[in-house]
Write a sequence for this structure.
């Protein structure tokens, strides 16, 4: 049943791409840009616009005409983009926590923006189905980065193989659970520290 559901979901997503291809180019609504100085504003706008363009190059234009991007610049961060998430609403958008001191190259080379933008191409799913949505976004982020020249094909395949190995290891670690079904683990992903199994089971499916 999960496979049938997954195939139906996959068809739904890519039929959405076909429809989206006939619509106008998506515009970005920046929220929180005023917290940055002029140089940082130019850098962040360039990063976000590059991410939108790269994503639409691979997946086609989004159906919604405007994408709100909620900017949360950080003074202290160990990564260029330590956290991001999709904000669902009348217009789905993306919240980005990022280092205000990261270079434009570091921001473009980070996978997070491409992953979150890929989520905008599918509807919000239930917790037990997160393995589908996270797997699809993880698979597509690598395709987007490869198509835009950020990584090579060989590098993409290396990342996918390494991720699948982490997912397999995480699956073995969780095999002792009384209910180790993927839907159950997906529903309790954060409590079980099961992100690797959830994300990469979805990648393996797609």
């Amino acid at each position: 049943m999960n496979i049938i559901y997954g195939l139906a979901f996959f068809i739904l997503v890519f039929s959405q791409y076909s429809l989206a291809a006939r619509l106008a180019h998506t515009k970005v609504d920046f929220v929180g840009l005023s917290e940055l100085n002029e140089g940082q504003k130019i850098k962040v706008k360039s990063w976000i616009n590059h991410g939108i363009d790269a994503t639409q190059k691979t997946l086609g234009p989004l159906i919604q005409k405007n994408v709100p991007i909620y900017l949360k610049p950080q003074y202290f961060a160990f990564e260029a983009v330590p956290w991001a998430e999709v904000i669902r609403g009348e217009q789905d958008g993306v919240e980005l926590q990022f280092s205000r001191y990261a270079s434009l190259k570091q921001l473009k080379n980070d996978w997070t923006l491409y992953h979150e933008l890929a989520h905008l191409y599918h509807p919000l799913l239930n917790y037990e189905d997160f393995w589908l949505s996270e797997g699809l976004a993880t698979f597509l982020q690598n395709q987007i980065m490869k198509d835009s020249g950020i990584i090579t094909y060989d590098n993409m395949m290396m990342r996918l193989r390494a991720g699948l190995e982490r997912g397999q290891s995480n699956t073995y670690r969780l095999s002792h659970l009384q209910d180790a079904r993927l839907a159950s683990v997906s529903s309790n992903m954060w409590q079980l520290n099961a992100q690797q199994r959830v994300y990469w089971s979805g990648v393996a499916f797609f």
Summary: The longest strand covers residues 66-74. The chain has nine helices and four strands. Residues 38-59 form the longest helix (22 residues).
